[in-house]
Each structure stands twice: as C-alpha cells, then as structure tokens.
Amino acid sequence: MRALTTIALLAVSVSLLQAAESPAYRRLPLAVYRDRMMGGWLGQMVGVAWGAPTEFKWCGQLIPEAEMPRWNEDWVNAAFGQDDLYVEMTFLRTLEQYGLDVSIRQAGIDFANSEYAVWCANRAGRENLRKGIAPPDSSHPRFNRNADDIDYQIEADFSGLIAPGLPNIAIALGEKFGRLMNYGDGLYGGQFMGGMYTEAFFRRDRVRIVEAGLRCIPAGSQYAEMVRDVLQWYREEPSDWVATWERVNAKYLRNPAYRRFSSWGTGDNSVDATLNGAYVVLGLLYGEGDPERTIVISCRCGEDSDCNPSSAAGVLFASLGYERIPERFKARLNRETRWAHTQYNWDSLVAVCEKLARQAVIKAGGRIVVENGEEVMLIPRQTPRPGPLLRSWAPGPIAGSRFTPAERARIRFPDELTAGLAAVAPGFALRDCGPDMASPIFHGEFRGRERVLQTHPLNRTTGSRLVRRLEVPSNRQTRLEIAAGHHEAGDWLLVVRADGTAVLELPVGPETATGGWLETQVDLTPYAGRTVDLEVVNQPTGWMCEAAYWGKVAVVSE
Question: Which residues span the domain enclosing 450?
Fold first, then answer.
C-alpha cells in the first residue's frame, strides 16, 4: 500500500512538472516580475513629470522641438504629486483591503470618499457616486457627459502591472474600476493600456505589445479602429512619425464622426481617450524602444501631453525592466516620499503590487513554485475576452443602480456641486444650466480664486440662472455682490433681474474683467421691506466658450 502511495505521489509530481513545461503556461521568475513592474511605475513617473510643463499648451499642433523641455533628473520626484498616479492608487488600496473580488459598489464608495481634486470623467463620475448614483450608472452617458474622456486610460496602468500575462484580469478590473467614470471608448482606452502592460512582462517587441492590447477591446469600437489605423500607418510610414500624427489628427481630431461624444466640442482642444490614445501608440511605435525618443514623440503630439508620455513610457519601461532603464531617469528617485493622498511610498507600492500579482496568478489557475531557490510564477495562457461593445453617443439602457441608504451613509462627502453652490452663492438655486463645457461643475481654484462655480447657458437663447426669493430687510442697507469670470476664449452677458425686471446688464469678457474677473454690485435697498425674486443670469451672446465662473454671488446687509 505504501509503495502504491509513493508511485501515486511521483505521478502527481511528474504531472505538475509537465504542466509547468506545457505551452499552456508562461514562466515568469518573481525577480523578473518585480523588475518589470517597477519599470512600469518608474515610466509613468518620468513621462508625466517630463511632459507636465507642456500640458494642453499645444492643441492641434506639434510642440516645437525647441519648446520641448530637457529632462531634469530631479523631476522624477515631482510625480509624487501627480493625479495620473495617485488616483489609480485609490484603486490599488481598494484591492489591497478587499481583494480582487471586491464589488464594484465598494470600489465606488472608496472613490467617492477620495479627497483630491479631479477633473473630466473622474469629476463627473465621482459627483454621481456622491449623489447616490451607483456604478455602473455613474459612468453612463445619461448621467456623465465626460464618459469618453481620458481618465481611466491614464489610471489603468495598475490593472496590467498586477496581472502579468493575464489580460482577462486587466479587462475585468476595467469593468470594475473603469466603469466608475468611463463608458465605451473611454473605458476601452484603459483596458487597452492594461492589456499592453500584461504582455510587456514577456515581450519587448512594441508592435506585438500594441497588438496584445488591441485584442483586449471590442473590435467594432472606434478605439480599436484607431489602434489598427496607427499600426497600418506606421507600417506605411515607418520613419515619419509626423506624417502619421497628421493622419491621426485629420481623422480623430477634426472629423466630427470620430468626436460624437467629445466633452470639449469640436475645437482643437481634446481630452478624448481615442485621440490621446493614438499619441500613446504613436510614441511607442516610433520611439524604437528608446526611452527618451518614446517620451518626446508622445509629448510633442500635444493635447494631454503629460498623460500620454506617462502611458507610453510606463508600457515601454515595463518591457525593459527597471534595471535596464538609463540611470538619469532613476538616480534621484526618493523611495521614502509618499504619493499625495495615499499611504504608499516606492517600497510599499512595490510590495502591494507583488502581493496582488500573486493573488492574480492563483486566481487565474496558475501557481508559484520554487526552482533552484527562486520563486517562479507559472501563468496560464489566456485568450482575451473583451467586454460588450458600448458607444457613448448611442448608449445602452441604464442599470438603475443606486446606493442603498446604508451605503450612502458610508460616503463622507456631499456632492461637490451642492456644496460648491452653497459656498459661492448661499441661498441660491441653479436653473437652466446646460451641459456644455462639462457644466455645471465646482472648481477648487480658477484664475487665482478659490471656490468657483461654473455654469453654462442652456442653449443659444436661454441663460443659466442663479435664483433666490429674498426678504429684503426694512431697516438695513442691502446689496447683491457679484464676482464673475469668463473663459479666456469667450465672453457672456451678466443680467440681474428683480421680480422679472432687469436691474443690471454687463458684458463679462476680456475688455471688462480685470484679470479675468468682473466685480460689481446691485443696490437692493429700494426693495426694503419687500419679498423679491432675484435672478442672476449667465446670458449667451455669441455661443463660443460662454461658461460663467462665479466667484461670489452674495446678499449683504449691514
């Protein structure tokens, strides 16, 4: 009987060894995993820090070579304050606390409780979460005007860095964390990035890495079409990246058919995931595997020119591994500094990624074995299974997802818009605000002022209104004080009405607003002892960047 048991154990051992050597598995020594994972994080840091001085200063045009900053070795530590990195660490923290099977609702609660400033799809998604709109509806275009923006694309790096060779885990993490704020092509941008990272642990061939990312998203999406286009144009013009950049812009920046849900309209400014994703791919392909060339090309393409080189460098540096990265990019790295709004410094970030990667390998059916004293990941080969095809301009039905009262009690923050309106225009309510220019939103800072409310007219004839019914004191001097700003490319008409009668009309634009701000007041003493309906109106004039920025709308009595 003992002999039979020994034979059975030997048979199991041989079977496991054969599985380890089978093409169904890929071997990745843990030391190699750690080296490439660290490379991915360092690449993000270098890319975002190098491109930061150029962000959105060149839109629809190349950054001139003479205007491209020269790398400064101290800049790497500036990345500890960059949202490109610390937002995705919110997602890592959720995974660390709750595991890979954490619910999307818990992910939403954690993101709703983040304290940092966010923009675009992140802002809209988080506002929805704080209002009680649970994921996935927090990203649905019915509630989120920014669903195709770049946000998850620049935050998805973690999903590949903790899932070496496991594209389906990166895809699933996108369906969980990307759906907090993005939908359709905005979501696919992140899943594409995550998919590239999963393959970068095993390849340095940039074309193969891009193709691996492409297999992670629906083939019928515009994002996938973009990736196929850039690959084809690269093959046709392998030495002329500017020619490919021009073809990208002609189709994905200036053709309205490819900007059907652009939150920034039809101008040259674009935070669209597909366009900016093209600049990432362009940098990877034409960068020829050289870190500096890759970053410079992705940056010089313009638009979101710190996020794009961050993504490109992250993928490239992951394929190279930390040890192969030139010393000038890592010599000054401070391993003790924590990323803003997180618990992570360099070493603790590396540790949590390794912990989650081990879990991912086991979850996928792989194993971690010891060979000659070295741990090795045996990672099952996966065929990517993209999610369903979604289009933000023709979305599917909403899920009807709402947080329960118990879940809402766990969200510490009220929605920013409500809090911002109360801070800027106490006692006023907002009416007839249109969604253009991502309105209405609350800015923590705008043009040197803290706490600024942004509105936009409903349409070409109907202005957005701040309204209030006011009992004017009979024995005090009362006035309405207003600080109103304008977009640098637009102007609008400030109208104040009392009981339907205009008592003030002033243009708010470059000629009237000092430093972008117009300060004025309306005497309400003639209405003393009466109840009056006040309207403060953001009235359109020429329908070009006509958002109003309210620094103050306050009734003062003394």
Answer: 416-557
